[in-house]
Specification:
catalytic activity; two-stranded antiparallel sheet; STR17/STR18/HARC1-like; globular; alpha/beta; 5-stranded parallel β-sheet; Rhodanese-like_dom_sf; Protein HIGH ARSENIC CONTENT 1, mitochondrial-like isoform X2; Rhodanese-like_dom
């Protein structure tokens, strides 16, 4: 059994590096909630929430790795992002520990992506 990795052992890239990786074929996994995702997301993003917001507070999606396995292969090159980078880091750790060898965390998340003026997909009627 492989040793469990911590957040320090996971590769984190900034949004500029993440954009280059996605242009070269990496998939983008958005781990925000469905509601956040529907307000705007990166083009061709895959959404699998890492946490759910419940009346009791944030609750981890117990089927996260299983749900990612339905849409991504363990050999896929994946960039994992959330709103600011706080959820994507533990999500990336969980994925790497589950055998997704090529998962990288996107530091700064969707907020940094938007701040840098990169293209996002928003619902019709919303300004880009």
């Amino acid at each position: 059994m492989a040793p469990t990795l911590s957040s320090e052992a996971v590769a984190t890239v900034d949004v500029h590096a993440a954009k280059r990786l996605m242009c070269s074929g990496h998939r983008y996994l958005d781990v925000r909630t469905v509601e956040e995702f529907n307000k705007g997301h990166l083009e061709n993003a895959i959404n699998v929430p890492y946490l759910f917001f419940t009346p009791q507070g944030r609750e981890k999606n117990s089927k996260f790795v299983e749900q990612v396995s339905l849409v991504c292969n363990k050999d896929d090159h994946i960039v994992v992002g959330c709103q600011s980078g706080m959820r994507s880091l533990p999500a990336t750790v969980d994925l790497v520990n589950a055998g997704f060898k090529h998962a990288k965390n996107m530091g700064g998340g969707y907020a940094a992506w938007v701040e840098n003026g990169f293209v996002v997909k928003k619902p019709k009627g919303e300004l880009q």
